[in-house]
Amino acid sequence: MDYATLKRRVLATFYDRDSRRNVIYGILDKEFPTVMRGIREIKRLDYRHLAHLAQRTESEFIFGRVVARLLREHPDMFVTTIHDSVMTTAGDEDIVQSIMLDEFKKRNIPATVRIER
Fold first, then answer.
1. Strand partners of residue 79
2. Domain residues for 69?
3. Of 34, 44, 95, 102, which shows the fewest CB atoms inside 10 Å?
4. How far apart are CA 104 and CA 92, in angstroms?
5. Do 65 and 91 fall within a single domain?
6. How many independent structural domains does the chain possess?
7. How far apart are CA 93 and CA 87, in angstroms?
8. What pLDDT sits at residue 19?
């Protein structure tokens, strides 16, 4: 299975209706039953609730932490966002990457932040 297919199936497991279970759902349910029970509980009244929660969390991190810090520490730097990405001008990528990694580290979240040119 290629990466794109795997990613789609994992995201479907988290964000789609439980009635549309796939092979990944079964694997995660077997290996991480407590996590999957929590996901089912969050989605119990409305399967979209977990996706909304994830979007709010992502937005609070990107805007409330990363962009806010960039604006505070580098007020003349150009930054804009697309979902979970921060765009800037050539030459400032390392600054953005460093701040994103530091903000993840503050929350004890291991992360990889790629620079796309």
1. 88
2. 53-106
3. 34
4. 19
5. yes
6. 2
7. 8
8. 80
- How is residue 77 annotated by DSSP? S
What's residue 83's pLDDT?
82
What is this structure's pTM? 0.78
In a domain, residue 97? The reply is: yes
Calculated CA dihedral for residues 66, 52, 41, 1, nearest 10 degrees: -80
On whether residue 31 sits in a domain, the answer given is yes
Residues 102 and 58 in one domain: yes
Same domain as 57, residue 30: no
**What SS3 state is found at 78?**
coil
Tally DSSP H helices, then E strands, for the chain. Answer: 6, 2
112 in a structural domain:
no
Q: What is the pLDDT of residues 74-107, one digit of tens each?
A: 999 999 999 889 999 999 999 999 999 999 999 9
The pair of structure tokens assigned to 35 is: 């996590």
- Listing DSSP states for 5-45 in one string gives HHHHHHHHHHHS-GGG--HHHHHHHHH-HHHHHHHHHHTSS
